[in-house]
Amino acid sequence: MAFIPCLAWVLVGYLSTYVVGAPNLSSFYPPLWEESPGQFSDYKVENGKYIIDPWVYNSRMGMYKILLSQTATYFAKFAPENEQNVLWGLPLQFGWQFRSGRSADPTRKTNCGYESEDHLCISADSWWTDINYFLCAIPFLSVVDAGIMGISPDEVTLLPPSKEQQRFCYNVSGCRSSHPQMMKQWNAFYQYLKSPSTDFDDILRYLWTAHTSSVEGSLGNFEDKLVYYSKPEADFGKSWCVFVNYLVASLYPPTLIRTYNFEKGLPSRVLLKTYIAPFIKDFNPIQNVLLLSLNGLRKLDESTGRSTDPTRKTNCGYESEDHLCISADSWWTDINYFLCAIPFLSAVDAGIMGISPDEVTLLPPPKDQQRFCYNVSGCRSSHPEMMKQWNAFYQYLKSPSTDFDDILRYLWTAHTSSVEGSLGNFEDKLVYYSKPEADFGKSWCVFVNYLVASLYPPTLIRTYNFEKGLPSRVLLKTYIAPFIKDFNPIQNVLLLSLNGLRKLDESTDSELLTLWETLMKTKTTRKLVLLLMETFFEIAS
Question: Per-residue pLDDT tens for 57-111?
Fold first, then answer.
């Protein structure tokens, strides 16, 4: 099941596109945008150099304001008033950090960043704003270096924090020396912006490559700062970094309105040790659900390893190597492709996404390209039944009167079309796995048929709790359930049960499934099965 990460994407899509009426763009600006410096002359000058203090909120925000202003000309062809400038994500994220208290001193040893005290102070002990420093100073100094600001590289200097000055860089030459890869990637972004012909997708590729260099180049340097936070907040920080990698892979456009609306779903304050999503009382439902989804996505990303290259001929998917890569040799993620691409493109085709069907294209893998489809028209042609069933699901959702059981019927009919329409195409991939893992894959597919017959509702919390019982990693050839030592009892029992169900189903030539489908035709038996499942996992938890 991939409902938790998919839910995160649905929320992103919903939040990012929700705008009512003709917007007044100034209402989307980050806090104190108007009061922040907007040109170099607003900063003090010493010895012919502009002196900027990035440890004061409006001073650092002013760097972003100048950056957005000076790059506006490159985005004028995409929308008026600089709204489509993809650099808006940087100041809006920094503004959210300030507004939510994440730029304040987490140690509480100083008053830095606290309301009614020194609330504009940016703490060098804040993990959030230390990472942000390299998403502000580096883009800013790189744009100076690229010649876009109209001043020479030696005319601007940033002030150091009151402590740990060696962790940062403060001018073009110093940052070139200490962080050459970051400066190189941001410079490449600006050089592409300056080219006579630019494509919006290519702008995003250059932006996210540069953004990734800043994040990956700074994360390891500030890991020690996470100890100043509660476990929920530290976990959220890690989850946020994982999620950003998915934004990178999708070429998410961090424009003004889209980013502003997305940030409505982010936690409005630093998380306390007692906070458990989705039950944080004064967080709104979207904040609770998004927080739970991001943490679930991180755990899924860290745990299973089923998106990695099972042949081990490449580094695709392996930790400390190319861990975000999804292998086209993975049986699991090849099947999942048709539970992601088809629902997604069908939603576009159904008019739910607010864009036309020809406005989105998926990239092919480096091999076996002919096994997949990449856009609405291509998937309609190669997988008409899948597209038809998913479209029927969305059309029913859009109807004025819907019933939850009928929603589930349409969903599972569409889900079944994706699975049955792709299983035979990837059976050859199972040879890359141990026998226990290959058997588990087959058992999982059989079990899903029983979920389908039961009209199991794969809602957020229910699915999250159920997935706790799934194997936490790829099974080795020596694994025998229920005797896998470091699997918990529920994982061992569930694995044994699923394999047993598959063998029983095969021995009865699927007559057992037929009997189950007959039993599940009444709402009473379906409710009873659901209650038994939930009771089992509640006791297990």
Answer: 999 999 999 999 999 999 999 999 999 999 999 999 999 999 999 999 999 999 9
Q: 180 preceded by cis ω (within 30°)?
A: no
Question: Can you read off the two tokens belonging to residue 437?
Answer: 């893992």
Q: Which residue has tokens 């976990």?
A: 235
Judged against a pLDDT cut of 90, whether residue 147 lies above it is answered with yes
User: CA-CA distance, 246 to 252, in Å (whole number)?
Assistant: 9
Tokens at 474, concatenated: 């790829």
Q: What is the pLDDT of residues 104-146, one digit of tens each?
A: 999 999 999 997 778 999 999 999 999 999 999 999 999 999 9
* Residue-wise pLDDT tens digits, 444-460: 999 999 999 999 999 99
DSSP H/E element including 44: strand 44-46
91 and 61 Cβ atoms separated by less than 8 Å: yes
Rounded CA gap, 270 and 129, in Å? Answer: 13
**Cis omega before residue 482 (within 30°)?**
yes
Sorted by where each begins, the domain ranges of the chain are: 31-257, 326-432, 435-541
- Vertex 276, ends 116 and 225: CA angle to 5°? 55
Handedness of CA 278, 280, 285, 287 (dihedral sign): negative
Whose tokens are 């994220």? That residue is 93
Distance CA 234, CA 507 (A): 49
Burial of 490 per CB tally in 10 Å (0-12, 13-18, 19+): middle
Q: Single out the residue of 60, 72, 40 nearest to residue 134, CA to CA.
A: 60
At 296 the pLDDT is: 81
Range with lowest mean pLDDT among 33-37, 297-301, 388-392: 297-301
Mean residue pLDDT across the chain = 90
Amino acid occupying residue 245: N
Asked if 522 contacts 459 with a C-beta cutoff of 8 angstroms, the reply is: no
Q: In angstroms, rounded to a whole number, what is the distance separating the alpha carbons of residues 225 and 161?
A: 15
Are the C-beta atoms of 172 and 151 separated by less than 8 Å?
no
Bridge partners, 112 (sequence order): 118
Q: Which of 431, 397, 420 is nearest to 339 (CA)?
A: 420
Contacts of 367 (CB under 8 A, 6+ apart): 328, 329
**What pTM did the predictor assign?**
0.62
Rounded Cα–Cα distance for residues 419 and 275 (Å): 37
Residue 155 sits at the vertex; the CA angle it makes with 154 and 157, to the nearest 5 degrees, is 85
- List the beta strands (DSSP E) in 293-369: none
In sequence order, the 6+-apart residues with CB closer than 8 A to the CB of 48 are: 155
Residue 315 has pLDDT above 80, yes or no: no
Q: What is the pLDDT of residue 3?
A: 47
